[in-house]
Amino acid sequence: MKPIGPLMREHRLIERMIRVMERRIALTEPDPAFLTTAVDFMRTFVDQIHHGKEEDILFRDLKTKTLSAEHRRILDELVEEHVAGRNLVKRLNQARTESIPGDAASREQLAGIVAEIAVFYNKHIDKEDNRFFYPCLDYFSPAEQEKMLRDYAEYEGRVLQDRYLNIVESLEAGNR
Prior knowledge:
single chain; mainly alpha; 5 helices; globular
C-alpha cells in the first residue's frame, strides 16, 4: 500500500460524514447531540487524526525534499486550508452552542456553515486527491513510503490515546 492510500480512504469517510451533516441539517430541527457528534468528528477525526497525519508526517517529509514550484505552492495552500477548516469547525461549534431550539435563524445559520464546510472540503479533498498526492509519491523511495505507513499507525494510536486520556482526566477532575 502507498502512503496516500490511508489518507484517501479517510477522505471518503469525511465526504460521507459531510453528506450526513448536510442531510441532517436540511431535513430536521438540528439535534444538539448530533451537532456535538459532528463537531467532535471534525475536530478529532478530520483535524487531529487525518490532518495530523498529513501535516506531521507527509507534509513534514515533503518539506525535506526539493519540490517543484507547483508542488511547493500546493503544499503551502493545503497547510493554509487546514487552518481555514479549523476555523469553519470553530464557527460550527459556536453556532451549535448558541443555537436556540425551534429558532429558524439558528437553523439557517447552522445550515449555512455546514454548506460552507461541504464546499470547502470537497474542493480541498479534490486538490489533495487529484493534484497533489499522486505526484508527491515520486519524491519518496519505497522504503520512505513504508516508513510513512508505519508512522501513520503510530501517530493515530498516540492521538487516540491522548484524546481519551484527556477525557478521563477531565472527568476525574469533574470538568465534564
